[in-house]
Amino acid sequence: MEKNRPQVGSGPSNSDSPSDNVNSSITSSPTDTLRTSKNPSAKIIKNPTPILSKIRKFKNNDFVLNYSKGWNGVLVGLRKLLQLNYEGGSNYANYETQKGILSLRLSDHNANGNNFNTDHINISVYVALIEYQHVETRVKYIEYRITKETYNKYPKKVVYEIVTAVERALSGEVFELNNDIAEKTPYEIEI
Question: In Å, how far are 100, 110, 121, 144, 145 from 141, measured between CA atoms?
């Protein structure tokens, strides 16, 4: 059974969803986030080489992101860079890594862990533009919360750290963000 989570913070009246010209209301439940990762037919990216190539271009300033529209604008570029899909107000991808399937979620709000796949390495990264109360989870996941103040003060550093963490994970290492960028919260099975 899905639970609605009341909004803790405030944000714009509609979140930007540049793909398919669809606007998702911020009052909708974030329980739709990552639903497709539970779907056994959800696409798993098995060859990280094209993504790693784009990451190298990004690090060489040959893959430019538009920072002028804030975090949601940067997410448009990160979708292309990291082959993320936009679904339910969040951006996600499932990558096959040496450590197992990594389900990555990037968003402007915190996750509902019950929407992750129990067999995956589940990582949620969000810039805290909107926050919901935590929902008890049946799935283990790690969430990285980046304050909007940190993002607004150091947007390029934050994005660089996220991209580097993805690069490390795709190369067989552990996904990890520095604690000067993000607060890490591991969620264990609570239900």
Answer: 14, 12, 7, 10, 13
Report which residue type is found at 157.
Answer: K
**For helices 49-59 and 70-82, angle between their N-to-C axes, nearest 10 degrees:** 130
Alpha-helix residue ranges (DSSP H) falling in the chain: 35-38, 49-59, 70-82, 148-153, 155-170
Predicted TM-score of the model (pTM): 0.80
pLDDT digits (tens, 9 = 90+) for 91-130: 999 999 999 999 999 999 999 999 899 999 999 999 999 9
Tell me how crowded residue 134 is: count the other CB atoms within 10 A of its CB: 16
Neighbouring residues of 39: CB distance < 8 A, sequence distance ≥ 6: none
Contact 31, 136 (CB under 8 A): no
pLDDT, tens only, 40-88: 446 899 999 999 999 999 999 999 999 999 999 999 999 999 999 998 8
Please name which of 44, 173, 86 lies closest in space to residue 78, comparing C-alpha atoms: 86
